[in-house]
Design brief:
- The protein has 161 residues and is of the alpha+beta class.
- The protein contains four helices and seven strands; from the N terminus they run αβββββαααββ.
- The strands form three sheets. A three-stranded antiparallel β-sheet has the order 1-4-5, with no helix packed on it. A two-stranded antiparallel sheet has the order 2-3. Strands 6-7 form a two-stranded antiparallel ribbon.
- β6 and β7 form a beta hairpin.
- The longest helix is centred in the N-terminal third of the chain and has 19 residues.
- It is globular and about 65 Å long.
- 25% of the residues are buried.
Length: 161
């Protein structure tokens, strides 16, 4: 059993306000008589992520779907734009998003922390735990084979070590 409707709507609208402040948007509040599921369509801009082995895009869209059982039931996310990622399915494969924020969802979690988790996931894919789709497995292999490289040197007293 979820929250009574007026409290549920108030909580969702409070979280939409937080999301608006975080993302710099103006998503409208939902009315008290809104039908569920509630779907927030979110577009991340200036969030570079691969769309293939050779292409990168800076704009990505997903739907955040809330049921009447929110916040006791975690939201669902569906990716809507092409993405080459081990932990996010291509839209034609279902668009499911695997983020720890969803795995660890609790009553105290909120939509803004979820969006932050998605941003982090885009920047730091986990190639060791891909979805089983062809595109996710291919992305997993690519990310495992193309890890960022580092080079460093030490200097002290004005001299290289």
């Amino acid at each position: 059993m979820g929250l009574v409707r007026p409290i549920l709507v108030k909580r969702i609208n409070n979280e939409i306000g937080e999301l608006n402040r975080y993302l710099g948007l103006s998503i409208a509040d939902i009315p008290e008589d809104a039908e569920f599921p509630v779907v927030l369509s979110i577009t991340l801009t200036n969030s570079p992520a691969r769309t293939s082995e050779t292409e990168t895009a800076r704009e990505h869209s997903f739907d955040l779907v809330l049921s009447e059982e929110y916040p006791f039931e975690r939201p669902r996310a569906r990716w809507k734009t092409p993405v080459f990622h081990p932990n996010i399915m291509m839209p034609q494969d279902g668009g499911f998003v695997c983020v720890k924020t969803l795995d660890n969802w609790s009553f105290g979690s909120n939509m803004t922390s979820f969006v932050m988790g998605v941003e982090s996931l885009l920047a730091y894919p986990n190639p060791m735990n891909p979805y089983g789709t062809d595109s996710c497995i291919r992305a997993s292999r690519w990310y495992a084979d193309n890890k960022p490289g580092f080079d460093a040197k030490v200097s002290y007293g004005g001299k290289d070590a």
